[in-house]
Structures are given as structure tokens and as C-alpha cells.
Write a structure and sequence with these properties.
It contains 18 helices and 16 strands. By secondary structure, the protein is α/β, with parallel strands linked by helices. The radius of gyration is 23 Å and the shape is globular.
């Protein structure tokens, strides 16, 4: 929606956002408590507004245009390659309804792309499902090399990630330095930089890997250097337990200081491993946020640090208001959550799950992932905000997708499993990754599993030093920070969880 943004469209966009907000409120209710008539009315109104916006976009020639492989090829340098991973259903007598993966490989001098079959989804699923706890042993098993091959519980040997994904592509990668690639399906669950070629070498040691939402971005994205950073907002040390008095005080403080905050920043105008009922305070998160804020301020960048009761959902949404420019850096050190599609069919099972948070059981994929902000525990337990006039503190991917983050160069989600989301056919990942991209953020650093506080803080501190002080690129800074932990002998569990999506 943000690609349609212009001053002429502000009124329409505001109406769309209002409809989306009301729809979001309805969707967060249990299905039995929703107003079906209101939902239908809102959806009809939203469709009309989007149609109106699309007509305006067509008149102004800003709709998404079709991109040919030749246009993508024209953007490649002599030692680059573009790889678009795809997955598709394959039907034959022996394999009924199996899902296969393949790669569309494009080199600078090719007369056409190469279609390379790779593996069946069940082979990758076998690797991913051998350890679903996302603990250290899971990561070690998943990212091991062929020289350290393990066996599946059934006793049958499995191919490594490298053998499944990259070995079939090696004949096309001779002399290649940079690989632009777009994941598909379950490949979104993998940090390709951490895939081991052998005991000594990772894929990122051999190639410069650039993960994109689609390789069409080589054509559509502006070919400019990273913008000079002037503004940043940091969230950490968040109080997830608040009463109504504290929340209202925070909202009042936020409103009274909003003009000053925007002036200072030169603005022109939620962990699925949780077993208990609430979210716990993250001490390491506060230390991380404080340290990063110091680094940022040392470089002369104007930053605002939101901690404790001040890290509210309402405040975050103000950053993405359509009448302001969003901060260029947004760093969130908090809990994140992701719940897979609740494939429940048995009526008794449905009834037994009525006590589960609606965010876990929602049929809407963009509600089943999000970030946890101040005061969220009350709504997580009860399904209602602390007060009717307040936000609930649970910032869903759906809500994020409605923000205006077109001015944001980088979003860092230093939280649990923020890189995960539902896999919806060939449409990619529905979750925080898609939400922030829809909102307009250019780069995202997210996590695929829960990394311990100490190592997360160490990694993030090193990243910001490389990026803002030593002036390395975002991609190179993350790679250098991860290599620092590798050199200390730390296993991939401690550093490979974070991925950059450009």
C-alpha cells in the first residue's frame, strides 16, 4: 500500500487505515464473538477504497509492472548470479501430490534461465522436524556438514542442507562471487549464510549472499547507496505488566511529548516457545537497548529510547503515521511470537482450545505473529486491553503492515522467531517479514530461533559498531559481527539465528 503514497492520496489512505484497524479489532475477537455484519460491511468498504486507490495508481502509472528475466539479467555483473527458488506440486503415479523444490538460475551471459530440480519437500521437512525445540542441538544438527553427518531417529541417513539445496547448483556457480536469491516455502526457515559446505567452510565464506523477497527487486529497487542515518528509535527493557494508571500515564506522556520527539528526530510531520500464561521481563533486553543507544548517540544520530512503561503499542504506531516520516532505524528488543496455522477440525478439539489466546488460534496468518510491547500480558491473558481506550500491547503483523515506514532504512527485531511466519503456497511468508516490507521498510534483521540474551546483545552491539562507526554496509556489518562470534568458537546456535532480508 505504501507504494501508492502521495499527498493526494492521504485522505484515502487514512480511511483505508481506519478500516484496517477496525477489521483488526474484529479479527482479534474469538470467532463466536465477532460481528459478522460489521465484518462484511468493513470488508466491502475496504475493497471500495482499495479499488479507488488502484484506479488513481493506474492513472499515475505506479502499479507493479511485469518484470522479464532479461531485465533482471541486465542488472547482474559478470560474477553475479540470480537464483529464484520455487516449490510446486508434482503429480505422477508414484508420487501423489508431492511438493518439489527447484531453482531458476540466471547468469549474466545466459540465453535463458536454467531450471534445476532440487529435492522433495519431505526431505527438507525431515531435517526441520527432527528437532522442533530450536535449542542448541537442533541448530547443530540442522547446520552440520556432510563430514559430521547424523542419523534420523528412524535410522535412515539424510542429506545435509548443502547437499539438498546447493550441491546441485554448484556447476552453475563457478567463478561466481555474489548470489542474489529469493527463498520459497520452507527455505524461509533456513539461514543460508550458515549452511556448512564442509567442516571448515560455510556458504557465506565462499559467496556473498543477498537474500531478497524476490529477484525482481534487482530491477525495481532504487540502485542507490544506503541513506545517511539521522534518526533512530530503540525499544527494550519493556514492562509487559502494567495497570491502567501506569498505561494511561504513559499515553499522556507520549502525547504531550510527541511534538518535541518529532522535532528532536527531525521528523517532517511479539516468543512462540512460551509455555506459561504471560511474558516475562527481559533484563538482557534493557542492557542491549542501553548499549545500542550509546553507540548510536556517539555517532551524532538523534535517537529516542523507549523502555519500561513507555514502550507502548500506541507510540510505535505513531512512528508509522502517514503524516510523518518514520525513523530511519527502528530497533526492537522484546518478545516476538509466531504460531503456525491451527489445523483443527475435530469439534471437541476446537472447544478444548477456546481458552488459548486468540492470537494463537486465529485463522488470519498476519495475526498469528507479532511483537509484544508494554502492558501486553493483560490482553494476552484476557483477550482485552487494560482500558477500552488503550491499545492492547500486542502489535500484530497485520497492524504493522498498515504503517507508513517508507523512510525506514533498517528494522532490527532482536526477538524470538521474528523471522518466521506461515508459508502460504508460492506467496511467501505471512508474518513480520512481509508486514514490515509492506509497510515500506527497506532492510530487516530478524531471528529464526530464540538466541540467549548475552550473545544477542554481543552480536547487536558489534553490528552497530561496524555499521555506524566503521561505516560498513548493513550486510557486511552483520556478517562481520557473526564472524566475531564464530572466531570465539561459539556454535552456530549463538550467531546464525539472525538473517538479513533486503
Amino acid at each position: 500500500m505504501n507504494r501508492f503514497y502521495s499527498r493526494k492520496n492521504v485522505e484515502t489512505l487514512s480511511l483505508i487505515r481506519a478500516c484496517e484497524k477496525r477489521l483488526s479489532s474484529e479479527y482479534t475477537l474469538p470467532s463466536l464473538k465477532r460481528d459478522s455484519v460489521n465484518l462484511t460491511t468493513l470488508q466491502t468498504k475496504l475493497n471500495e477504497l482499495n479499488k479507488d486507490l488502484a484506479i488513481k495508481a493506474f492513472r499515475n502509472n505506479i502499479l507493479i509492472k511485469s518484470i522479464s528475466w532479461i531485465e533482471v539479467q541486465n542488472e547482474l555483473k559478470f560474477n553475479d548470479v540470480s537464483i529464484e527458488f520455487v516449490h510446486y506440486k508434482y503429480f505422477n503415479i508414484e508420487q501423489i501430490d508431492s511438493i518439489n523444490y527447484a531453482a531458476l538460475v540466471l547468469l549474466p551471459n545466459d540465453t535463458s534461465p536454467h531450471f534445476i530440480p532440487l529435492f522433495e519437500e519431505k526431505e527438507l521437512n525431515q531435517l526441520l522436524s527432527t528437532s522442533q525445540s530450536r535449542r542448541m542441538d537442533y541448530v547443530a544438527d540442522l547446520y552440520h556438514s556432510s563430514n559430521d553427518r547424523g542419523a534420523l531417529p528412524s535410522g535412515s541417513s539424510s542429506k545435509t542442507l548443502y547437499e539438498l539445496i546447493w550441491q546441485p547448483l554448484e556447476p552453475y556457480l563457478k567463478g561466481v562471487n555474489k548470489i542474489y536469491f529469493s527463498p520459497s516455502g520452507l527455505l524461509h526457515r533456513i539461514n543460508q549464510n550458515a549452511v556448512a559446505i564442509n567442516d571448515q567452510t560455510l556458504l557465506s565464506d565462499k559467496y556473498d549472499l543477498v537474500q531478497l523477497g524476490s529477484t525482481r527487486q534487482l530491477v525495481t529497487d532504487e540502485n542507490v547507496k544506503e541513506a545517511k542515518i539521522h534518526t533512530a528509535c530503540i525499544y527494550g527493557g519493556i514492562n509487559f505488566e502494567m495497570d491502567s494508571t501506569a498505561l494511561l500515564a504513559s499515553i499522556h506522556k507520549m502525547d504531550s511529548n510527541s511534538i518535541a520527539l518529532r522535532s528532536e528526530l527531525s521528523f517532517s510531520y511479539t516468543d512462540s516457545t512460551l509455555r506459561g500464561a504471560t511474558w516475562s521481563y527481559l533484563k538482557g533486553s534493557e542492557d542491549e537497548a542501553n548499549e545500542i543507544n550509546k553507540i548510536i548517540q556517539k555517532t551524532g544520530i538523534k535517537s529516542i529510547l523507549f523502555k519500561g512503561n513507555e514502550a507502548t503499542e500506541a507510540g510505535f504506531k505513531k512512528l508509522g503515521d502517514y503524516n510523518t516520516e518514520s525513523p530511519q532505524v527502528i530497533h526492537v528488543s522484546s518478545h516476538g511470537y509466531f504460531f503456525p496455522d491451527p489445523k483443527v477440525s475435530h469439534q471437541a478439539t476446537i472447544l478444548s482450545l477456546q481458552q488459548e489466546p486468540v492470537f494463537k488460534m486465529s485463522e488470519h496468518p498476519m495475526l498469528r505473529s507479532g511483537l509484544i510491547l508494554a502492558g501486553a500480558n493483560h490482553a494476552w491473558k484476557t483477550g482485552k486491553p487494560i482500558t477500552p481506550e488503550a491499545e492492547d500491547g500486542i502489535l500484530t503483523a497485520y497492524e504493522i503492515s498498515q504503517l507508513n515506514l517508507r523512510n525506514t532504512e533498517l528494522v532490527v527485531l532482536s526477538a524470538c522467531e521474528t523471522g518466521l511466519g506461515d508459508i502460504q503456497g508460492n506467496e511467501g511468508v505471512y508474518g513480520l517479514q512481509r508486514a514490515f516490507k509492506i509497510a515500506g521498510a527497506k532492510n530487516l534483521i530478524m531471528s529464526l530461533w530464540q538466541v540467549p540474551d548475552k550473545q544477542t546483545s554481543e552480536l547487536m552491539t558489534a553490528f552497530y559498531k561496524y555499521w555506524l562507526i566503521k561505516k560498513k554496509s548493513i550486510r557486511e556489518s552483520l556478517k562481520l559481527a557473526q564472524n566475531d562470534l564464530r572466531k570465539k568458537g561459539l556454535e552456530s546456535f549463538y550467531w546464525a539465528g539472525f538473517v538479513l532480508v533486503e
